[in-house]
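SAMPLE LOG
Freezer: B-3
Tube label: C17
Construct: single chain, 117 aa
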Amino acid sequence: VQLQASGGGLVQSGGSLSLSCAASGRTFSAYVMGWFRQAPGKEREFVGSISKVGNTVYADSVKGRCTISRDNFKRTVSLQMNSLAPEDTAVYYCAAKHLPSPTYHSWGQGTQVTVSS
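STRUCTURE (predicted):
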C-alpha cells in the first residue's frame, strides 16, 4: 500500500489541525493504520492507531486531544488534533500494518506540523 499524508502546517498554540492520509490499493480496510511523529533531534514516537473495525489506541501524550478516524470506502485515515502545544511540533507520518505483525510495513512521506507559542 502507498500512503500520502497531508494537512500539516503552522498553527498557534491551543489551535487545532486535521491531518489526512490517503492510501492506494484495494485492501486498505484490512490494515491497522497508525500515526507517528518525529520531532527534531528526537526519535520517532507512536501517536495512535486505528484497527480495521475502528478501535483506537492513543499515546498518553495525546490522549484526550487527538482523534483518529478512518473511511474504508475512501481509503483515508485522519488525525484530528486539538489543544496543540509547541511540543507537538514534529513531522507526522501515517503507516500501515497487517495484524498480528507488530511492525508497520508501509509509511507515508510525512507532513510537517509546527505549533507556535
